[in-house]
Write a structure and sequence with these properties.
Elements: E1 52-57, E2 67-69, E3 72-79, E4 95-102, E5 108-114, E6 138-139, E7 143-147, E8 153-157, E9 163-167, E10 185-187, E11 190-195, H1 196-199, E12 201-206, E13 212-217, E14 229-233, E15 236-243, E16 246-250, E17 257-262, E18 274-276, E19 279-283, E20 292-296, E21 301-302, H2 304-307, E22 308-312, E23 322-324, E24 327-332, E25 335-340, E26 346-351, E27 406-408, E28 411-415, E29 421-425, E30 431-436, E31 450-452, E32 455-459, E33 463-467
Parallel strand pairs: 17-21
Antiparallel strand pairs: 1-33, 2-3, 3-4, 4-5, 6-7, 7-8, 8-9, 10-11, 11-12, 12-13, 14-15, 15-16, 16-17, 18-19, 19-20, 20-22, 23-24, 24-25, 25-26, 27-28, 28-29, 29-30, 31-32, 32-33
């Protein structure tokens, strides 16, 4: 029985009051940071026979990340079509699934199967790298909000799984067949949905009713798979998001653009922005992307000359970065990089290696500094106009890793697509201290892990794993 209070009390500034600080309630956890806020130690070693609390089999695959709220774990997947490699079946049988698991046991407390709005992309080519369940759900502690692309936004009662409402946000299919992946977030009493691919817009719904509070369209959302965050600056809250060629600060109460800053060399947005206080990091994505920027939130209009903190050349075009103790950490092509948050200068690099001991075999060759992209590559766009470079920018690369690093304490975890989870000790230097793997699971591990109260939740294409220190 779900024991959280549903009393109507004043809403918190960003999260509803039913959500605890240690909960992991959206893509990349607390405000999209990828950093666990509680101090409970987490295991650094695990396998099928060590520190595995439970497993939960899923009815099908997916790339969405698990979320954790109180005594519950929520995860989405798809079923009925393209579940087994080489045996696609009929697209007419496709279903979208939402499961609520008991955090203590992994048992299914409730589930929902949703009929999709067809036609959908066929499971082939680059779309097969993404699939039909890539948007991570979110919650305000009372309701669960799920985004299924052109099939819309759905709200469920967290306690018993009753479907409360459903709203469409657009029925566009990504023209190259790459799908969509941006995830919803909660702000005050709103659930904000980045329907970048489906409708070239962002939409805010009243969480309790599904009523549209505001909707802002823009051709500048093209080629966008990122998820926004909330940043407090200059006495207000900005909804900050990456878009192709820029980073935007939007008023979360009405969706109107407040400020923008160029991200040179970018023709798509794949990595999500991350913040250190009021300083936001955005990464270039797509062809020619070789720039990262730090920009202070706040301001009005073009803030390039007033709020830009630094421009760097270390990027992670798909995995989102993570910030810890004054350093930014990136993982790209199995190379972990640390960057000084004050200056944007690279501090160190280490190659992540899947050796038997989990220790790096060698240091990576020094990567030469690349010249900054020309200013003509940073064409401005957005609600004020634009529409990307040539209409559509670069996209994903088949077979690459899609997950993002997460941090608990002074340890960073990063899982690659084949299931290798690298354990990196953070401090003056980065040091790979371990490698973990569920060897019997041959499905993709493309979802970013969740961390809460000393437990790590890892999701593959078939299973959710709860990792916790075994009681001796």
């Amino acid at each position: 029985m779900f024991l959280r209070s549903c009393a109507l009390v004043a809403l918190g500034f960003v999260l509803a009051p039913e959500v605890e600080a240690s909960d992991w309630v959206r893509f990349r956890g607390p405000n999209g940071s990828g950093v666990a806020t509680d101090s409970t130690p987490v295991p650094t070693t695990w396998s099928e026979s060590e520190n595995l609390k439970w497993t939960a089999k899923l009815p099908g695959p997916g790339l969405s990340c698990p979320i954790v709220v109180g005594d519950r774990v929520i995860v989405t997947c798809w079923s009925g079509y393209a579940v087994e490699k080489g045996e696609l079946g009929s697209l007419e049988n496709l279903k979208r699934n939402v499961l609520c698991l008991d955090r203590a046991t992994g048992d299914v407390l409730w589930s929902h199967e949703e009929e999709p709005i067809l036609p959908e992309n066929e499971f082939r080519s680059m779309f097969a790298e993404n699939g039909y369940a890539s948007h991570t759900p979110t919650t305000d502690g009372e309701r669960v909000y799920v985004f299924f692309g052109k099939s819309g936004v759905l709200a469920f009662d967290l306690g018993d799984g009753r479907k409360l409402w459903q709203q469409k946000v657009g029925e566009n299919l990504e023209q190259r067949g790459w799908g969509s992946a941006s995830s919803p977030i909660v702000y005050k009493n709103l659930v904000i949905v980045p329907a970048f691919i489906e409708g070239d817009r962002t939409v805010a719904f009243e969480g309790a009713t599904g009523k549209i509070v505001w909707s802002q369209d823009s051709p500048g959302y093209t080629s966008n798979w990122s998820t926004p965050i909330l940043v407090e600056a200059e006495g207000r809250t900005d909804l900050v998001m990456a878009v192709p060629g820029e980073v935007w600060g939007v008023n979360p109460d009405n969706g109107k653009l407040r400020w923008y800053c160029e991200v040179p060399g970018s023709d798509s947005a794949r990595a999500s922005v991350v913040a250190d206080g009021d300083v936001v990091i955005a990464m270039a994505g797509g062809r020619g992307g070789s720039t990262s920027i730090a920009v202070r939130a706040g301001g009005k209009g073009d803030v390039k000359d007033t709020h830009l903190v630094w421009t760097g050349r270390d990027v992670s075009s798909t995995a989102s970065p993570v910030i810890h103790n004054g350093k930014m950490y990136l993982v790209n092509n199995k190379v972990a990089t640390s960057v000084d948050m004050a200056t944007g200068k690279r501090i160190a690099q280490t190659r992540l290696t899947a050796t038997a001991s989990g220790q790096p075999e060698e240091k990576p060759e020094a990567q030469p500094e690349r010249p900054a992209p020309g200013s003509d590559q940073g064409n401005a766009q957005g609600q004020r106009g634009g529409g990307g470079r040539g209409g559509y920018g670069g996209g994903g690369v088949g077979g690459q890793d899609y997950s993002s690093p997460v941090i608990a304490g002074n340890t960073m975890f990063y899982n690659s697509r084949n299931g290798d989870v690298f354990v990196i000790e953070l401090g003056e230097e980065m040091k790979q201290v371990g490698l973990n793997k569920f060897a019997s699971d041959k499905t993709d591990f493309s979802a970013t892990p969740a961390i809460s109260d000393g437990e790590i939740f890892i999701r593959s294409g078939s299973t959710v794993y709860c990792i916790a220190e075994s009681k001796k």
